[in-house]
Structures are given as C-alpha cells and as structure tokens.
Recover the amino acids of this structure.
C-alpha cells in the first residue's frame, strides 16, 4: 500500500468527501530534531490548513477512522467463547495514606514537583544556552524563576489579551502585585533565554528532547508522590497549540482540535501519575510490544511499566476506552497481576464470539444485555453487550453483566428520565474512567494565559498546570483547608511567590516611551505651563 502524505489526504477529503466520511483524525509524523527548533514558530492565534508549511504537506500522514483497528498483531492468541460469564469483582486494596501532606501549604505541595533541584537545573541550562547562542548571561536566580512561575500561574485566573498589560499603569488594566515583583523587561528576558536541555547533547531520536530536562524530573516527582488508588484510567490529553510543528495533531471530534497529544495515566480524581508525549512511529517505543498488542494498546503497557516495583505489586484496576481495549491487552494486564475493564470496538472481537450481531442487537429494547466468557490459555475475560442509546460492548477481567445496576436515561415515550438496567462491567468502567478528562478540566479551567511562540511553550505551561492540579489533588485528599477551592489554591501559590521572592521597585522611575499614560497627559488639551521646580 502506497504511503500517503498530508497533501494527498487533504486533496482526497476535498475532492471525494464521501470516501473520507468516517475520518476522525489525520496523524502526521514528527520532524527531525534540529538545534534551531526552539525558534519562534510564527502566529499562534490562527490555524489555517491552507497555510501549512511545505515539510508538513509532504510529511507522511495516517488516516484514523471511527472504526479503525490497530495493525495486525504478530502473536495473536486463540480465544474460545461460551455463553454466560461470572466475575467476582475487584480484590481488597489498601487505603491511601495522605497524612504526610495534611499540614502542607499550597506552595509547599507545588514544590514537591517543582523542586529546587529542577529550578537549579533550569538556571544552569539558561547559562549554557546563552553561551551557545553567544548572548550575555542574564544571571537568572532561582528566586526570579519562582517569581516567573508565580506570574504564569496568576495569568491563568487574571488574564489580559497582552502580557504587557500586567505592567501598565492605566486605570483600566495593570496588576500591582506583578509590577512590584518583577520588571517587564526582566520577565521578557527570562522568556527569551528560558531553556531546559543542553543544545550540544540533544537526542536525535527524541522529538521532545528540548523538554526532557523538565518532563523527566516532573514525571519522577509525580510518581514519587502518587498515593496508590485502585482504579487508574489511561487516555489521551490534548494540549492546544496552533503554531508550526509536525507533532501537532488535528483531531476532528475533540474540544481541542489542534495540539499535542499526550498519553496519561490518571486516578479518577485527575492526579497524573505518568505521561508520555506522542511522537508518531519515530518516537522511542517497545517495537515488540507494538507488534504484539498494536500501537494504541502498547501505550497502555508502556505507562504501566513506569510503576515502581513496590507499587506494581498492588491489584490495580486499569480502565481504557475503545481506542485501546482488546482481548489480548486485557489478558496481558491480567498476567501482570492487575485487572482491566474497557469499552471495546465490535470488530476487535473474533467472529465466533457468540454475541448477537450489532445490527440485530440495535432492535432490542434499551437495557438489554448479553454476556460471554472469552478464554485463552490462563486468561479469562467477560465480554458484555448492552443496548443503551446505542450498542455498547465492554470487556473486563473483574466484572460481568451481573450483578446489574441501573442508570438514568431519558425516555421519549414517558417524556422523563427512567431507570435502565446496566451491566456491572459498564458501571465499573464509568466509575474508573474519566480521570484524564478530569485532569483536562482542572487544567483548562485556569490554564496559563501568557502565550509564547516557541513550539515547546504550550507543553511547558501544561506541565506547570498539571503540577498545580496534582498538588491540589493531594491537598484535597489530605483534607487541607486550602483545598476548598481550586482557584484559591492557585491564588495562594501565585501570591506567595510574588510577595516573598519579588523585588519591589525602588522608585517611580522614568515612564516608558510607549506608555499611553504619558501621551495622554502631554496631549490632553489642558495647556500645561512649564514652571520652575522648587528643587532647582
């Protein structure tokens, strides 16, 4: 089969839309890593498919459809099916101990992730970057980096269309806390030289190598302070980005249609325990795992591999949606001592599955359910088919259809919400899934509003926001008074950094040349008269 590039795909969508009706995403392969990939990426406020770069248009592209399946697995297991299923649920799981975090202030919880070691690393990388570029070293201190972080966090809940407005002294805009903590020129200088990885030691096989100094440290700290919770969900997070970068994804049926894709492993409350930037087929991955389980399912196992040995012994319950779930994946999860539950695409089941065909099942009443047991070697998976508003197929190593529960659905006949029977596997999936969506909700609610044009800026600010929401989750679970409201939690961090590490202005100083206040006073039509100063 010939390899398509993005230009071919776009032409096909435009000329033959009926043949591309089921396309939900077009995935581009990332570019080669270059030393100058941290240069400005152009206008970030627009995303026009008609103005993509030449390298993007000729880059290989992969079409993802609604019913797409993974590449054929080289080591398929043989599954046998029998009617009926029986599962006993999840085993006992120890309660999480949040006592070490109960007396900590918001900034202390945030510094569990953005540690002094990390800020010293950034400080050193700024020095090396200035030497590499032949620029004068601005001698950025750790305290200034904390003020810089505080301003970024503050911009998430007190945003302006332009970052310079924080330092203006006009009646309608301006922020005294920001202006008294750091000068505008100093803030923009730090933005200019901010760096995280030595340009002389970039990994050509890593498309996100410029961020690894920060992302690796944060992932270690996220896992270090992860208090085990039995249910974990694996899903994709999207970081909004409109600049020029071939790692940028275009996913049609998502609230964020353009941006970077990140695989995340989250608790139901949204705590991010592990993550991995999506890089396409050229990223570092376990090729043997990809061949055996498929590209999507392999991402689940890669994040589970990051669990420390002392934690990996616990009987976790891993939830995935139908992009990832397959019988072979659930069997591997079971082999590792975990349990797995997920919705499943009907075309990933062998034809001899003994379940009623999807088209025939659609004619059954809402709440109808069927179940079979899929067996292979030492694995046993319950597969449930349920009629909701549409046909839903789910598979689990811990739950079957019974004991059934119920969900509320609107009845057109009765003109009200009614109780509809629901399988136990579906109810367990609903309870365990959604952690990544909760993380996205927490991050995007007060997302850092200051924008930069370097390609990694959106990911850098995303990492800060995830660290804040992880700190907030720990505070909530520990019963801290500061966790009553996420907004107040973020404000507490920003205020502490700006008030304790800021450098107040020594005097009024000379007004900026572009200060609109100065222009208004000079030309306000009030006939100002020059007078001799009393100090003359």
């Amino acid at each position: 089969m010939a390899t398509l590039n993005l230009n071919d795909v776009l032409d096909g969508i435009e000329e033959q839309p009926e043949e591309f009706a089921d396309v939900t995403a077009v995935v581009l392969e990332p570019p080669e890593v270059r030393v100058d990939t941290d240069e400005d990426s152009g206008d970030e406020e627009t995303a026009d498919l008609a103005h993509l770069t030449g390298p993007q248009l000729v880059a290989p592209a992969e079409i993802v459809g609604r019913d797409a399946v993974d590449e054929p697995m080289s080591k398929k297991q043989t599954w046998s099916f029998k009617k009926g299923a029986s599962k006993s649920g999840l085993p006992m799981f120890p309660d999480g101990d949040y006592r070490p975090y109960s007396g900590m202030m918001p900034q202390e919880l945030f510094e569990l992730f953005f540690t002094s070691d990390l800020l010293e690393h950034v400080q050193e990388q700024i020095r090396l970057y200035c030497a590499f570029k032949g620029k004068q070293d601005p001698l950025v201190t750790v305290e200034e980096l904390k003020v810089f972080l505080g301003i970024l966090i503050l911009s998430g809940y007190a945003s302006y269309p332009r970052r310079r407005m924080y330092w203006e002294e006009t009646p309608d805009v301006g922020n005294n806390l920001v202006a008294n903590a750091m000068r505008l020129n100093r803030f923009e200088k730090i933005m200019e030289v901010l760096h995280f990885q030595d340009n002389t030691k970039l990994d050509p096989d890593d498309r996100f190598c410029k961020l690894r100094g920060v992302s690796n440290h944060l992932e270690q700290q996220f896992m270090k302070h992860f208090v085990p919770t039995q249910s974990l969900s694996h899903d994709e997070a999207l970081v909004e980005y409109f600049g020029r970068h071939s790692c940028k994804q275009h996913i049609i049926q998502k609230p964020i249609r353009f941006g970077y894709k990140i695989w995340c492993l989250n608790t139901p409350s949204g705590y991010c325990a592990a993550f991995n930037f999506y890089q396409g087929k050229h990223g570092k991955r376990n090729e043997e795992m990809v061949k055996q389980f498929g590209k999507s399912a392999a991402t689940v196992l890669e994040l589970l591999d990051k669990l420390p040995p002392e934690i990996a012994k616990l009987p976790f319950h891993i939830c995935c949606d139908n992009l990832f779930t397959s019988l072979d994946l659930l069997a591997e999860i079971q082999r590792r001592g975990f349990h797995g539950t997920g919705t499943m695409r009907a075309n990933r089941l062998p034809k001899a599955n003994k379940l009623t065909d999807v088209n025939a099942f659609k004619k059954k009443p809402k709440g109808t359910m069927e179940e079979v047991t899929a067996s292979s070697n030492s694995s046993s998976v319950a597969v449930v088919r349920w009629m909701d508003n549409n046909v839903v197929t789910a598979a689990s190593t811990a739950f079957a259809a019974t004991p059934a529960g119920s969900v509320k659905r609107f009845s057109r006949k009765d003109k009200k919400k009614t109780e509809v029977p629901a399988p136990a596997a579906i109810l367990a999936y609903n309870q365990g899934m959604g952690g990544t969506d909760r993380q996205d909700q927490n991050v995007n609610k007060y997302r850092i509003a200051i924008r930069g044009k370097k390609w990694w800026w959106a990911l850098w600010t995303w990492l800060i926001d995830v660290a804040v929401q992880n700190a907030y989750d720990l505070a909530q679970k520990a019963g801290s008074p500061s966790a009553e409201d996420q907004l107040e939690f973020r404000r507490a961090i920003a205020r502490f950094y700006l008030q304790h590490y800021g450098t107040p202005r020594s005097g009024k100083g000379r007004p900026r040349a572009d200060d609109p206040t100065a222009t208004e006073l000079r030309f306000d039509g009030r006939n100002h008269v020059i007078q001799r100063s009393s100090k003359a």
Notes: The longest strand covers residues 231-240. The radius of gyration is 27 Å.
